[in-house]
């Protein structure tokens, strides 16, 4: 890693553009969101469907983190920001996401299922593709909108799993939830650093990119406490 500090090697990194599509296993079959199984958590089938959907999100999150580091490191370098810190941060996030994927797939196996047993949709990666030429848009959409949305919905899932008696799955989601707060915080840190390097006003820039690159609304209810822990001020998602 230290060797990447040399400018020639950063240049080499810039030429190594990541692929348009990450390598994926032959299953799950990718389908429309409406065709992905629903998640009624009172039954074991419902809990398996939920865990399968989360495993798919985690796999996309692995790809998004490593894509971020490989695709945009040279741009960070050209902004005279700390390229090694950027690589270290997103590779570390990718490592967390890989661990999350392992935790979820292990839990699926305890329930007699496996990743790939059900169809999944490709919405997350399509979002990544839409922002593949715009570093700030990627930071806005991936960590600051989609991962932050995960902070809003995960506590409810944990509560429903606990009330269904599935403490093991709930405990896995609790680990993931805590670590996702640090991922949103990482996105927020880099968002500000890039805005600062380009002399952009952060809140105005966030909302302009959100309107251009994110289809849909930022949906309440918001988990203000977790968002605050991630350093995400209300002006970024629920301006009064
Ligand atoms: Fe994750």
Ligands: fe (ii) ion
CATH architecture: Up-down Bundle
Name given to the CATH homologous superfamily: Ferritin, core subunit, four-helix bundle
CATH class: Mainly Alpha
> Average pLDDT value?
91
What's the N-to-C terminus distance? 44 Å
* Total helical segments: 8
Which fold name corresponds to the CATH topology?
A: Ferritin
Cα radius of gyration in angstroms: 18 Å
Assign an overall shape: globular
Label the structural class: mainly alpha
Helix and strand sequence: HEHHEHHHHH
Task: Provide a descriptive summary of the structure in words.
The chain has 240 residues and is mostly helical. It has eight helices and two strands, in the order αβααβααααα. 66% of the residues lie in helices and 2% in strands. The chain has helices at residues 7-15, 44-78, 83-110, 123-130, 135-163, 167-197, 202-213, 224-229; strands spanning 30-31, 120-121. It has a single domain (28-236), classed as Ferritin, core subunit, four-helix bundle (Ferritin). The model has no long low-confidence stretch (mean pLDDT 91). Strands 1-2 form a two-stranded parallel sheet. The structure holds fe (ii) ion (FE2). Fe (ii) ion is lined by residues 58, 61, 97, 100, 176, 180.
